[in-house]
Write a structure and sequence with these properties.
The chain is α/β, with parallel strands linked by helices. Helices cover 47% and strands 15% of the residues. The chain has a five-stranded parallel β-sheet with strand order 2-3-1-4-7, sandwiched between helices.
């Protein structure tokens, strides 16, 4: 099965993607990872991409699509794959279609903005160990201090409430239109694409179970 996973930042897509890939034995394809690997390996596409990056410009959709096409021809994609972080725009989604890259499932993990703000802005981290707490859901024994070392906990810059709200605003403007795009696509029986909305509120196990049930039904 070929899958696209949509959802706002903080919806838990990374964790759920790992679950899907393990459950169904498919690779998680990150366009960012592919781009870095192509540049490091000095492939034809990588050399082309490096020139663009070195000039300070964004890598074009054409280059990204070429990387995707090359990657999905690998043997480990025989059972399918999960696209991570792509497409982000309708233009990119159209490019996939033009290149006859078939998508079986589009999963949209839905979490209200305020829930995401609460999730992310409440996180606190012990940098040395990576231990993570939450001021509401998993507070440390002593406020602001790591349970094991007593050292200070910090709030990552990306978890600041204003930053989180800014990222959500960008998502709604640029990426959320893909939801409507793939909803419409699913109505076209010729595409074979199924759009499935997943309730992303609840425990990790609950959300995983919803996704698994949707993909095996």
């Amino acid at each position: 099965m070929n899958i696209i996973l949509l959802g706002p930042p903080g919806a838990g897509k990374g964790t759920q993607a790992a679950h899907i890939c393990e459950k169904f034995n498919i690779p998680q394809i990150s366009t960012g990872d592919m781009l870095r690997a192509a540049v490091n390996d000095g492939t034809k596409i990588g050399i082309k991409a490096k020139k663009v990056i070195d000039s300070g410009n964004l890598v074009s959709d054409d280059i990204i699509i070429s990387l995707v096409k090359e990657r999905i021809e690998s043997q480990d994609c025989n059972n399918g794959y999960l696209l991570d972080g792509f497409p982000r725009t309708i233009t990119q989604a159209d490019s996939l279609k033009l290149e006859d890259i078939k998508i079986d499932y589009v999963l949209d993990v839905q979490v209200p903005d305020e829930d995401i703000v609460t999730r992310m802005s409440g996180r606190r981290v012990h940098l040395a160990s990576g231990r993570t707490y939450h001021i509401a859901f998993n507070p440390p024994n002593l406020e602001g201090k790591d349970d094991l070392t007593g050292e200070d906990l910090i709030q990552r810059v990306d978890d600041d409430e204003d930053i989180v709200r800014g990222r959500l605003k960008i998502y709604h403007k640029k990426t959320e239109p893909l939801v409507q795009y793939y909803k419409a696509d699913a109505l076209d029986t010729n595409t074979g694409t199924k759009f499935i909305a997943i309730n992303g509120v609840g425990s990790l196990d609950e959300v995983q179970e919803r996704i698994t049930s949707a993909l095996v039904s």
